[in-house]
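ok new one. same drill as before - C-alpha cells go in, u give me an amino acid for every spot. 1228 of them this time. try not to just spam alanines like last time pls lmao
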C-alpha cells in the first residue's frame, strides 16, 4: 500500500477512534439498528467509491461545512420570511381598514348630496302646491289682483310649514304702480281684520295641538321647526292699526309712505300673525338685495333664494320681527321666494304675488336614518366671501360657526359637489358667486374605522412563523444526530472491510450487500398477501382501479387475505325503482352519477375504500387494505355525511330531473367483523369482499328506513367503546333478517337527527296515508284562487315600470321550496323547447307583424268559451327539405334574457294559480308535463325508422321518413312546446270537484261555460289571460310570430286541454269516431299516401291521446307511483264528500270504479298508443305497467281501499285536528 494510502488509512483510524469516544454505537432498538444497518451499507458503498477514486476523507468535513452553511442560510431565510409575513399581513389589513374608511365616508358624502338635493326639490314641490292653492282661491273668489285676502291662509300655511320644515311664510301681492298703491291703501285698511282672525284661529289651533299632541310636545326635537308654538299670542284687543300706506324705512329708521313709481311688494298675510302689525304694508322692494332676488324671480319665471341673511340689516330685522323663532346666534339661513301666478294652468302667465319663506341650512343636511353615524364636517362655501361649517352625525346636525373649521389633515379625503341648480340664488357679492358643498371626515370618524387590529394580526403571524422556525430547527437537530450515528457506523464497517479484503473484492461485497438487501426485502414483501393486495389496489378506489384481465395459467397464488377488523356499509336509494320508471335513461344515470361522485369525494377524504356499486346500491368498507382500529368510527362519520349530502343533492337535482326527485331517500346499513378480501382473477379482474359480515351488512340495510342509518349490534359496541354512544339509539323492534334470524339493531343518528335529538324524530318517507289525512282535510283545504290580474297587479303606469325580476321575486316568495324547484324544472323544459322553436324558425321564412298580432290577440282574448274552437283537424306545417338541411342546433340558440325571465315569471304565476287540492295541483301538472315530455322524446327518437336500416340517419330521405312516420309532429317544434305548456296549465284553478258537480251546484263557472267542460275551459281562460299580459309580450312572440302560428297555437292549446275532459260522453264519442276514421281499416304504412288532411287528422288525434295518457300516466307507471296518486285522488274526493259536494262515499265504489277505469279507459288508451305506431318502446312500457297495475290492484285493491277508508273516512276527528303541510295559493 502506498504512502498516500497509508496516510489515508491512519487518518481514518484516527477519525474512527475519536468518533468512538464521542458517540459509541447504540443497540437499544433492534428495528432501528436493522434500518440503520441497511442505510449504513448504502452510505458505506458511497464511501468506498470515494476511496477507490482516491478522494480525500476531508470531503466529509467539506460536506458538513456545506450543510452547515445551507442550514444557516435557511435559518436566515426563515427569519426574513417571518418579518416579511408580518409586514405583509400588517399592510394588507391596514389597506383593508383604509378602504373601509374611504368607502364608508364616500357613502355618507353621497347621502348628504342626495338628501340635500331631495329636500330642495321637496321645498319647491310644497311651495308650488301652496302657490297653486292661493291662485285657485283667488279665482274661486273672483278677486282681482292684488286685492286678495283669504281667511284660511293660517291653516294652509301651517300645513306647508310642517311639510317643508320652514319657519316663516309670508304672502306679498305685487302692486304695479302708484294708482294701484292708493287703491291698495284703501283695501288694506278695509281688510286688516285678517290679523285679528288669524290670531283667533292660531289660538284655537294651538289649543287643539297641545291637547292632542302633548306627548310629542314633551319630547322636544330641535329639528322640528314648529315646537314652541305655545308662545304668547297677542289678544285681539291689543292689536294696533296697520300703517295706512305702502311704506319704506328712512335712513333714521322711520316709516314713510313710498311714493315711488312702483312696482311695490307690500307684506300682507303671514304666519304667525305679527306681534306688531305695523310691519304690514312694508314694501319689500325697498331693500336692494330683496329687489335683486325679486328681479331674478321675474326674469327666470322661477323660485329663487337670497344670500345668507344678515341680521345687521335693520330692514330685514324689522321684517322678520313677527316670527317668534329667533335665528340670530343659531344656524344660518336664507330667504326663499316663490312666484304666485294669476292663472294656475299657465306657468308663463303674469306673476301677481310672492310667497316668502326661509331655508334653514341645518335641515338640508340631516340624514334620514335613525342610526347615529360617526360625525363628518360639511362646509358650505358661497364662492365669494363666506363659509360656514356643520357637523353631521346621521339625523343630528350641529352648526359650528361662520368659517371653515374642518381639520386640515383630512383635506385629502375631501368630497365636493355643487349646490342644487334647481333653485337659483342671488348673492350680495355678485352674480359669479355660487354655492358649493365640501364634506370632510372628522377625527372621530377616522378613529371609528382605524383600529390596532393590523398590528395585532401582524404580531400573531410573526409569532406563528417564529414557532415554525423553532420546530424546524429542533427537527433538523434530531435528523442530524441520527445521520451522524449512521455515518459513524458506516465508517467503522468500511475501515474493517478495508483491512481484510482487497479493493476489488471489497467493492463487489459492497455492491452485492446493497443489492441483496433490496432484493431480499422485495422478495419477502412480495410473498406477503397484504402487500400483494395493496399493490394491486394501488392505494386507489375502484373509481381509478384498473379493470384488467389477469392470467391465472401461471398457477400463482391468488391475491387474497383475511382482514379481521372491518366495517362494511351498504347504501341503497329508497324509492329509486318507482322514480326511475317514469324517467328517461339519461336522467336515471344523471342521478346515479351525481350521487356516486359525491360519495366518492367523501370516501376519498374520509379514507374509506369504495368497493363497488350495484344498481342503486353503494358498497364501501373500512379496515382494509390499510388496517385501522377506528374502522367503525370512520365508517359512521362517512355514513352520516353521505346521508346529509344526499338530502341536499336530490333537492338540488329536482330542478333538472323533475318532480319527486326531492322525495327520494337513502337507506344505510353497517356491520362490523372479519372480511375475506381479494382480487378475483379472470376477465376484467376486480376487487371483491366475501364473508358473513358482508351478508349481514346487506340484511341490515334492507331492513332499514328512509334517510336513516341502521347498524348492527357489533358495530354499535365498537362505536360505544369509541365514545360515540350519544350517536346511537336502540331500535325498538327486533328486525327479522333473511338467513340471519332476529337481529337487535341500532339507529346511528344523522346530522339532522342529532340536531333535533330530545324531540320526537320521525322519518318522512314521502306522502303516507297518515300524512295525507292531515294535509288534505276539509278544514285545511283552501278554495281561494289567484287570478292573473291579482298575480300581475293592476297595469298602472307605476306598476309597468317595475322589472320582471321584482315581480318574479314577489311571486316566488309565495311559493314553497318544492314548488320553486318544480318551477325551475318546468322552466328548463320550456326554455329548451323554445330554443328548438327559434332554431326551426331561423331556418324557415317567417315574417313578423306586431300590429296584426296585437289585434288578433285582442280578438282571441274576448272568447271566454273555447269549446267551439276545438277542431277536428289542426293544420301542421308540411315538411321543408331546405329548412331541414339548414337545421340549426338548438343548443346554439341563446334566448334573450328578458324572454327567459318572462318564462320564469309565467311558470311561477301558473303555480300560484293552482289551488291546494290533494290531486289537481301544481305537482300533478308537473307530473303530467314530465310524461308529455317523455312521450314526445320517444316520438322524436323514431326508433322504428332508425331500426329499419343502420344507414337511415345518413340517408337523404331520413327527414321525410321521420316527418311521415310521426305525422309531422317532429317537424314542428311549436306543436311540441304547446302540448307541454298545455299539460302545465290544464288544471289551473281546478275547484277539486267534477264538472258534473259544478253543473249540479249551478256554479257561476258552469253558467259561464254553458255546462260544458267547465274546469278545462276555465283553465284555458285563466292561462290565456295571464299569457296576454303585457309583461309576457316577448315570451308569447317567441312562441308565435305571425297570425297563422298564433291561430295554430290557440287551436292546439284548446284541443289539448279540452282532451283531458274524459268524463264528457259526447266528446268521448266524437274522439272514438275520429280514431276509427283515422286509424282503423288502414295500416300505419299506408298513411304515407294519404291526403294532407288525413295526416293532420292523425297528428291531431295522436296529440289528444298523448295528453290523455299523460293525464293518467300514474296508472301506467310503477305500482308505487300509481298508489301515491290514487291515494291523493281518493283524498280529494273525501274532501268533497265531507264538504257535501259529493253524493256518495268514495270508498263504497272505489275498488269497482278503479277496475272499470283500467278495463274501459286506461288499458284501451295504452293499446291505442301502441296502435298509432309513433311512440316506440314507450307504448309497450305504458301498456305493460297498466296491465301489471291492474293485476296488482285486483289482488291488493280491497285491502288498499280499506286502509284509505280507515284513514280518511273514519278518522274524522284526526282530520279536523290536523294541520296542513302543503302550501296553497296565497293572495297577493
Amino acid at each position: 500500500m502506498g504512502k498516500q494510502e497509508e496516510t489515508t488509512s491512519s487518518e481514518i483510524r484516527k477519525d474512527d477512534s475519536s468518533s468512538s469516544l464521542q458517540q459509541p454505537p447504540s443497540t437499544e432498538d433492534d428495528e432501528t439498528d436493522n434500518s440503520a444497518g441497511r442505510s449504513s451499507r448504502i452510505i458505506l458503498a458511497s464511501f468506498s467509491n470515494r476511496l477507490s477514486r482516491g478522494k480525500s476523507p476531508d470531503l466529509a468535513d467539506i460536506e458538513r461545512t456545506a450543510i452547515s452553511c445551507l442550514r444557516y442560510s435557511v435559518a436566515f431565510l426563515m427569519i426574513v420570511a417571518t418579518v416579511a409575513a408580518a409586514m405583509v399581513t400588517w399592510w394588507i389589513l391596514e389597506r383593508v381598514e383604509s378602504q373601509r374608511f374611504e368607502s364608508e365616508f364616500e357613502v355618507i358624502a353621497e347621502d348628504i348630496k342626495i338628501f340635500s338635493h331631495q329636500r330642495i326639490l321637496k321645498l319647491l314641490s310644497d311651495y308650488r302646491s301652496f302657490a297653486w292653492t292661493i291662485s285657485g282661491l283667488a279665482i274661486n273668489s273672483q278677486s282681482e289682483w292684488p286685492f286678495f285676502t283669504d281667511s284660511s291662509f293660517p291653516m294652509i300655511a301651517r300645513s306647508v310649514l310642517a311639510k317643508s320644515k320652514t319657519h316663516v311664510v309670508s304672502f306679498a301681492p305685487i302692486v304695479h304702480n302708484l294708482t294701484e298703491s292708493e287703491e291698495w291703501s284703501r283695501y288694506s285698511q278695509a281688510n286688516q281684520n285678517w290679523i285679528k282672525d288669524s290670531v283667533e284661529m292660531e289660538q284655537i289651533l294651538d289649543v287643539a295641538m297641545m291637547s292632542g299632541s302633548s306627548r310629542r310636545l314633551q319630547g322636544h326635537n330641535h329639528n322640528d321647526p314648529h315646537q314652541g308654538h305655545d308662545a304668547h299670542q297677542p289678544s285681539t284687543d291689543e292689536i294696533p292699526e296697520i300703517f295706512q300706506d305702502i311704506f319704506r324705512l328712512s335712513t333714521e329708521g322711520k316709516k314713510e309712505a313710498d311714493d315711488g313709481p312702483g312696482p311695490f311688494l307690500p307684506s300682507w298675510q303671514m304666519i304667525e300673525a305679527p306681534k306688531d302689525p305695523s310691519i304690514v304694508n312694508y314694501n319689500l322692494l325697498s331693500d336692494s338685495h330683496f329687489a335683486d332676488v325679486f328681479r331674478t324671480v321675474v326674469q327666470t319665471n322661477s323660485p329663487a333664494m337670497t344670500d345668507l341673511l344678515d341680521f345687521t340689516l335693520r330692514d330685514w330685522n324689522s321684517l322678520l320681527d313677527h316670527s317668534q323663532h329667533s335665528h340670530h346666534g343659531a344656524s344660518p339661513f336664507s330667504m326663499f321666494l316663490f312666484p304666485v301666478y294669476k292663472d294656475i294652468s299657465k306657468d308663463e302667465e303674469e306673476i301677481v304675488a310672492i310667497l316668502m319663506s326661509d331655508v334653514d341650512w341645518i335641515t338640508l343636511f340631516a340624514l334620514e336614518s335613525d342610526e347615529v353615524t360617526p360625525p363628518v364636517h360639511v362646509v358650505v362655501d358661497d364662492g365669494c366671501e363666506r363659509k360656514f361649517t356643520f357637523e353631521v352625525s346621521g339625523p343630528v346636525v350641529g352648526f359650528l360657526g361662520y368659517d371653515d373649521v374642518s381639520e386640515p389633515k383630512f383635506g385629502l379625503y375631501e368630497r365636493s359637489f355643487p349646490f342644487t341648480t334647481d333653485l337659483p340664488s342671488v348673492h350680495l357679492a355678485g352674480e359669479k358667486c355660487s354655492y358649493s358643498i365640501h364634506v370632510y371626515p372628522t377625527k372621530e370618524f377616522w378613529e371609528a374605522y382605524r383600529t390596532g387590529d393590523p398590528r395585532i394580526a401582524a404580531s400573531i403571524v410573526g409569532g406563528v412563523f417564529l414557532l415554525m422556525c423553532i420546530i424546524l430547527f429542533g427537527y433538523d437537530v434530531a435528523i442530524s444526530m441520527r445521520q451522524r450515528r449512521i455515518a459513524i457506523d458506516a465508517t467503522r464497517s468500511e475501515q474493517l472491510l478495508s483491512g481484510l479484503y482487497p479493493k476489488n473484492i471489497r467493492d463487489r461485497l459492497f455492491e452485492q450487500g446493497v443489492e441483496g438487501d433490496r432484493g431480499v426485502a422485495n422478495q419477502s414483501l412480495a410473498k406477503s398477501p397484504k402487500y400483494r393486495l395493496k399493490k394491486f389496489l394501488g392505494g386507489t378506489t375502484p373509481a381509478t382501479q384498473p379493470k384488467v384481465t389477469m392470467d391465472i395459467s401461471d398457477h400463482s397464488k391468488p391475491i387474497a387475505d383475511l382482514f379481521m377488523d372491518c366495517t362494511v356499509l351498504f347504501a341503497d336509494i329508497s324509492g329509486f325503482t318507482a322514480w326511475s320508471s317514469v324517467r328517461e335513461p339519461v336522467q336515471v344515470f344523471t342521478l346515479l352519477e351525481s350521487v356516486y361522485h359525491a360519495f366518492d369525494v367523501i370516501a376519498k377524504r374520509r379514507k374509506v375504500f369504495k368497493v363497488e356499486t350495484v344498481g342503486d346500491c353503494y358498497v364501501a368498507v373500512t379496515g382494509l387494505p390499510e388496517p385501522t382500529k377506528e374502522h367503525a368510527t370512520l365508517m359512521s362519520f362517512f355514513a352520516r355525511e353521505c346521508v346529509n349530502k344526499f338530502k341536499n343533492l336530490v333537492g338540488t337535482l329536482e330542478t333538472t330531473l323533475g318532480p319527486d326527485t326531492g322525495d327520494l331517500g337513502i337507506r344505510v346499513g353497517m356491520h362490523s367483523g372479519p372480511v375475506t378480501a381479494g382480487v378475483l382473477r379472470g376477465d376484467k379482474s376486480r376487487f371483491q369482499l366475501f364473508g358473513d359480515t358482508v351478508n349481514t351488512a346487506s340484511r341490515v340495510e334492507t331492513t332499514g328506513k328512509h334517510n336513516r342509518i341502521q347498524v348492527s349490534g357489533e358495530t354499535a359496541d365498537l362505536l360505544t367503546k369509541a365514545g360515540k354512544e350519544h350517536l346511537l339509539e336502540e331500535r325498538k323492534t327486533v328486525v327479522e333478517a333473511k338467513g340471519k334470524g332476529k337481529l337487535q339493531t341500532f339507529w346511528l343518528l344523522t346530522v339532522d337527527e342529532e340536531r333535533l335529538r330530545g324531540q320526537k324524530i320521525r322519518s318522512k318517507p314521502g306522502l303516507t296515508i297518515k300524512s295525507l289525512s292531515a294535509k288534505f282535510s276539509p278544514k285545511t283545504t283552501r278554495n281561494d284562487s289567484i287570478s292573473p290580474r291579482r298575480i300581475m297587479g293592476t297595469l298602472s303606469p307605476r306598476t309597468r315600470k317595475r322589472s320582471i325580476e321584482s315581480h318574479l321575486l314577489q311571486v316566488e316568495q309565495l311559493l314553497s321550496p318544492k314548488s320553486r324547484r318544480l318551477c325551475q324544472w318546468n322552466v328548463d323544459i320550456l326554455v329548451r323547447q323554445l330554443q328548438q322553436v327559434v332554431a326551426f324558425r331561423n331556418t324557415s321564412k317567417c315574417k313578423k307583424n306586431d300590429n296584426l298580432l296585437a289585434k288578433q290577440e285582442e280578438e282571441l282574448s274576448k272568447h271566454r268559451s273555447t269549446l267551439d274552437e276545438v277542431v277536428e283537424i289542426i293544420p301542421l306545417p308540411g315538411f321543408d327539405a331546405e329548412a331541414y338541411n339548414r337545421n340549426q342546433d338548438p343548443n346554439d340558440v341563446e334566448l334573450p334574457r328578458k324572454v327567459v325571465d318572462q318564462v320564469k315569471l309565467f311558470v311561477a304565476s301558473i303555480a300560484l294559480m293552482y289551488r291546494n287540492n290533494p290531486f289537481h295541483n301544481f305537482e300533478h301538472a308537473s307530473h303530467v308535463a314530465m310524461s308529455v315530455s317523455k312521450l314526445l322524446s320517444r316520438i322524436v327518437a323514431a326508433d322504428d325508422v332508425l331500426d329499419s336500416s343502420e344507414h337511415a340517419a345518413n340517408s337523404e330521405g331520413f327527414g321525410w321518413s321521420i316527418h311521415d312516420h310521426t305525422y309531422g309532429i317532429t317537424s314542428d317544434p311549436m306543436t311540441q312546446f304547446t302540448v307541454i305548456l298545455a299539460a302545465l296549465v290544464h288544471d289551473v284553478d281546478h275547484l277539486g270537484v267534477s264538472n258534473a258537480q259544478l253543473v249540479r251546484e249551478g256554479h257561476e263557472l258552469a253558467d259561464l261555460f254553458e255546462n260544458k267542460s267547465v274546469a278545462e275551459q276555465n283553465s284555458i281562460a285563466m292561462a290565456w289571460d295571464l299569457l296576454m299580459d303585457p309583461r309576457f309580450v316577448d315570451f308569447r312572440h317567441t312562441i308565435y310570430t305571425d297570425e297563422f302560428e298564433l291561430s295554430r297555437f290557440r287551436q292546439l292549446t284548446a284541443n289539448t286541454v279540452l282532451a283531458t275532459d274524459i268524463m264528457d260522453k259526447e266528446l268521448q264519442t266524437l274522439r272514438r269516431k275520429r280514431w276509427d276514421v283515422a286509424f282503423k281499416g288502414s295500416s300505419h304504412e299506408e298513411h304515407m299516401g294519404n291526403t294532407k288532411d288525413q295526416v293532420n287528422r292523425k297528428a291531431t288525434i295522436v296529440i289528444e291521446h298523448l295528453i290523455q295518457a299523460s293525464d293518467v300516466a300514474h296508472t301506467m307507471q310503477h305500482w308505487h307511483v300509481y298508489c301515491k296518486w290514487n291515494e291523493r285522488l281518493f283524498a280529494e274526493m273525501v274532501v268533497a264528500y265531507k264538504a257535501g259536494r259529493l253524493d256518495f262515499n268514495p270508498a263504497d265504489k272505489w275498488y269497482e270504479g278503479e277496475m272499470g277505469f283500467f278495463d274501459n279507459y286506461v288499458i284501451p288508451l295504452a293499446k291505442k298508443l301502441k296502435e298509432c305506431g309513433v311512440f316506440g318502446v314507450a307504448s309497450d312500457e305504458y301498456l305493460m305497467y297498466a296491465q301489471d297495475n291492474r293485476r296488482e290492484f285486483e289482488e291488493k285493491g280491497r285491502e288498499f281501499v280499506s286502509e284509505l277508508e280507515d284513514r280518511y273516512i273514519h278518522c274524522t276527528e284526526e282530520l279536523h285536528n290536523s294541520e296542513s303541510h302543503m302550501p296553497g295559493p296565497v293572495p297577493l
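The CA atoms of residues 806 and 905 lie 10 Å apart. and btw Residues 59-140 form the longest helix (82 residues).
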